[in-house]
Design goal:
alpha/beta, 20 strands, 13 helices, binds aspartic acid, VC0802-like, globular
């Protein structure tokens, strides 16, 4: 007997038919002799609808009431799913976040989980009851409803799995796993059988939108094994788990790309102590996240500085930077929003040489110019012109032997 936590996303519970088929899968897991705790999202589109309603009644809804509103989507699905299971002859019981309770801090709309009481859930499981919990929501110590940020049900599921020391946390979604790259761009992309937490964090932050990033951080911290799989079939999905030796034999596990950044340059910056702080502090103060930063070797006491920010912040970043550039006596600024960042990711890089040069050679063979480079232990990223995104991803996918063999 195992304790299985299953999480079903919005598309998996998007219609009454889908809820029925999810109930059948839960019933099968229970009939196999497992204890089952289920976390559900709202029906697909519902949370967006609620957010839009809030914005219709007022421009800046209070955060407390925002959470009261957007958490209701999950109240609908836990009840429907429990009813469905009961009508099939199973004992099932639903819980809101506040009923479990799942205690969070009081940062509305992006609350962090502080603790989870497992007493009621354990008592139900002992009575052979299937427990259905609302994802995405919690309650702060004073009793106000909180939510964990969009996509937060993944984090609810992993946190509950950690609290219960579950054997596995299955995340059911509308794709059947994590792929070596976006299969819509590269049809030869392969499903990854097993990926380390570190690699998944890099993939997630680079736009592989399968799991909320925070859920992977949580899983890593508490050693929860995540199984990402499809609720539409029975195929084995992707295991997100601790790094092992086998993973290191693979040079590159995946190729990610991100078209959401813009590049800003400050030209002819005086090469003196304190200048970088003068440039980047005002950006931080305005909550603009800077990703890559490159500073050229200086010549004649001047240097060029280039960095990337989210495209949506690039106008504001320029407005902030221009007066700073003037004040420090720089020659000028420029920006480019038509860029994309291509990254190769793999824990195998730690122990193998020549990965970067293979990446650069592959891009150069196609005449793709590299504008910026950054590296970490398990990732190499290149900024290129966005019109070459697809070509670059395809070429690298092939160069690192990721194409599916047919
Ligand atoms: N329903 C919430 C959302 O759409 C939480 C989730 O689905 O994970 O963001
Ligand atoms: Mg999701």
């Amino acid at each position: 007997m195992a304790l299985v936590v299953q999480k079903y996303g919005g598309t998996s519970v998007g219609t009454v038919e889908r809820i029925r088929s999810v109930a059948e899968r839960i019933a099968r897991t229970f009939d196999d002799g497992n204890e089952v705790v289920v976390i559900v999202s709202a029906m697909s589109g519902e949370t967006n609808r609620l957010v839009a309603l809030a914005n219709e009644v007022c421009e800046f809804p209070s955060e407390r009431e925002y959470d009261v509103l957007v958490s209701t989507g999950e109240q609908v699905t836990i009840a429907l799913l429990s009813m469905c299971l009961q009508s099939m002859g199973y004992q099932a019981k639903s819980y809101l976040g506040s009923q479990i309770p799942m205690i969070t801090d009081s940062t509305h709309a992006k609350a962090r989980i502080k603790s989870i009481q497992d007493k009621k859930i354990r008592a139900d499981l002992a009575q052979e009851t299937i427990v259905i919990c609302a994802g995405f929501q919690g309650v702060e110590e004073n009793g106000a409803i909180t939510t964990l940020g969009r996509g937060g049900s993944d984090t609810s599921a992993v946190a509950i799995a950690a609290a219960l020391k579950a054997d596995v946390c299955e995340i059911y979604t509308d794709v059947d796993g994590v792929y070596t790259t976006d299969p819509r761009m590269v049809p030869e992309a392969r499903k990854i059988e097993k990926i380390s937490y570190e690699e998944m964090l890099e993939m997630a932050s680079l736009g592989a939108k399968v799991l909320q990033i925070r859920s992977v951080e949580f899983a890593k911290k508490y050693g929860v094994v995540i199984h990402v799989r499809s609720s539409f079939d029975d195929s084995q999905g992707t295991l997100v788990t601790k790094e092992d030796e086998e993973m290191e034999t693979v040079l590159v596990s995946g190729i990610a790309f991100n078209k959401d950044e813009a590049k800003i340059s400050i030209l002819g910056v005086p090469d003196q102590p304190g200048i970088a702080a003068q440039i980047f502090s005002p950006l931080t103060e305005s909550n603009i996240t800077v990703d890559m930063i490159i500073q050229n070797v200086s010549s004649e006491g001047k240097t060029d500085m280039t960095f990337t920010v989210p495209k949506t912040d690039s106008k504001m970043a320029l407005q902030i930077i221009e007066p700073v550039a003037q004040a420090i006596g720089a020659r000028g600024t420029s920006s480019d929003t038509a860029i994309s960042k291509i990254s190769i990711i793999g824990v195998g890089m730690r122990s193998h040489a020549g990965v970067a040069s293979r990446m650069f050679e592959s891009l150069s063979k196609e005449g793709i110019n590299i504008e910026m480079i950054s590296t970490s232990e398990i990732k190499i990223s290149c900024v290129i012109s966005d019109k070459y995104t697809e070509l670059a991803v395809r070429v690298l996918h092939e160069a690192f032997g990721l194409n599916r063999e047919e």
